[in-house]
Amino acid sequence: MTALQELTIEYDGMLGTIKQYSCDPYVMSYLNKLKNAMVNEDYSMIQIMIQKLNEWYEENINAIEENRWVINLDSHHKTQRLIKEFMFKFSN
Fold first, then answer.
1. pLDDT tens sequence across 42-92
2. Taking a C-beta distance cutoff of 8 angstroms, is the pair 75, 3 a contact?
3. Residue 2 carries which DSSP code?
4. Per-residue DSSP letters for 70-90?
5. Domain map (residue ranges) of the chain
6. pTM higher than 0.85 for the full model?
7. Burial of 39 (0-12, 13-18, 19+ CB in 10 A)
8. Sign of the alpha-carbon torsion through 19, 81, 29, 3
């Protein structure tokens, strides 16, 4: 399985997890641009958007973990882990 195929499989779950927590226009833009880059097989844009999503998670994970209304914390940890894995996979 290629990295793009794997990302395609995981994308909807990642999108859903983030959308349940935030409607931040920046992170929504990153997700939309990532989807377009996946469809167009634009690997450089995929790499950039994954980096942006990683930065967003690094800036927000503490608030997510401390928010008592977040019911899917495990999904956020999984999404953050997947983003880090995809950063590595798309950097090679």
1. 999 999 999 999 999 999 999 999 999 988 999 999 999 999 999 999 996
2. no
3. -
4. ---HHHHHHHHHHHHHHHHHH
5. 3-91
6. yes
7. exposed
8. negative
